[in-house]
């Protein structure tokens, strides 16, 4: 029995080492680690301004969920990014009896979003995601209203979870050296393609500026002019 126990222990250690090697081979990194990407994901998420989402209860619930996950300390005073979200929802029958009585429904919430960098106005990331929550139907209208509200809350929380994770991953990717180099190249291309300021026209090539000609002590007729001062005269002593 001891041999068997030792063998099982060795197998467990081997399996653990194998899993560690697989994870290392996949270049696994924690999203909110101490790397540059992890710091960028954490700090970048806290600088996202979340705009209003719809004008109903579901939109407010989704916005509150995103604020709790991205900016729990409140909206940033100086945001670096703007998150715009639009939502649509629908109800679909899931379980129907032969007499057309609906016993169960699915509530589907779809969010379309885009992340904008405020400094440049560039759209960094945009996509769509959907989450579904089921609810029971009963003979009580009040119970049906409560069940639908519960489904709406669960769907909004699920969308907020996934959206916050996607934004953190995107911000971490943007902080990678490869993305920083790509952004620098793109910025250099923008500068090169920018229009040149022509407020002050350049100097014509056929008449470049040149210093004035030196005075050659000649008049307009080409003759030498008198010296501005007389030449010095030597004076002998006793004269």
Helix content: 40-55%
- Per the CATH scheme, the topology name of the domain at 45-190 is Double Stranded RNA Binding Domain
Overall pLDDT metric: 75
In CATH terms, the superfamily of the domain at 45-190 is Lipoprotein like domain
* Record field, number of beta strands: 4
Strand order in the largest sheet = 1-2-3-4
Which class of the domain at 45-190 in CATH terms?
A: Alpha Beta
The H-and-E topology, N to C, reads as HHEHEEEHH
Helix/strand structural class:
alpha+beta
Short summary:
By secondary structure, this protein is α+β, with helices and mostly antiparallel strands.
Explain this structure.
- By secondary structure, the protein is α+β, with helices and mostly antiparallel strands.
- It has a domain at 45-190: Lipoprotein like domain (Double Stranded RNA Binding Domain, 2-Layer Sandwich), CATH 3.30.160.
- The protein has 5 helices and 4 strands, in the order H-H-E-H-E-E-E-H-H.
- The protein has helices spanning 2-25, 36-45, 57-70, 141-174, 177-193; strands spanning 48-50, 81-96, 102-117, 123-136.
- A 4-stranded mixed beta sheet has the order 1-2-3-4, with helices on one face.
- Strand 1 (48-50), helix 3 and strand 2 (81-96) form a beta-alpha-beta unit.
- Helix 2 crosses helix 4 and helix 3 packs parallel to helix 4 (141-174).
- It is rod-shaped.
- The N and C termini lie far apart (141 Å).
- 16% of the residues are buried.
- Mean pLDDT is 75; it is low at 20-29 and 31-37.
């Amino acid at each position: 029995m001891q041999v068997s126990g030792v063998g099982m222990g060795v197998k467990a250690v081997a399996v653990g080492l194998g899993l560690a090697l697989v994870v290392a081979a996949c270049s696994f990194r924690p999203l909110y680690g101490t790397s540059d990407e992890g710091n960028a994901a954490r700090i970048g998420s806290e600088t996202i301004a979340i705009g209003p989402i719809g004008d109903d209860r579901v939109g407010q619930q989704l916005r509150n969920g995103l604020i709790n996950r991205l900016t729990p300390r409140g909206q940033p005073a100086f945001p670096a990014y703007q998150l715009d979200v639009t939502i649509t929802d629908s109800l679909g029958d899931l379980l129907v009896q032969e007499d057309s009585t609906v016993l169960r429904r699915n509530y589907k919430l779809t969010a379309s979003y885009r992340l904008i960098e405020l400094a440049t106005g560039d759209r960094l990331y945009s996509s769509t995601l959907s989450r579904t929550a089921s609810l029971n139907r009963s003979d009580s209208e009040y119970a049906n209203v409560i069940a639908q509200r519960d489904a709406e809350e669960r769907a909004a929380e699920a969308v907020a979870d996934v959206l916050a994770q996607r934004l953190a991953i995107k911000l971490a990717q943007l902080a990678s050296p490869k993305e920083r180099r790509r952004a620098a190249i793109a910025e250099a291309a923008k500068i090169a393609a920018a229009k040149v300021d022509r407020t002050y026209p350049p100097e014509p090539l056929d008449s470049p500026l040149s210093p004035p000609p030196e005075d050659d002590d000649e008049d307009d007729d080409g003759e030498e002019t008198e010296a501005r001062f007389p030449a010095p005269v030597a004076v002998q002593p006793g004269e």
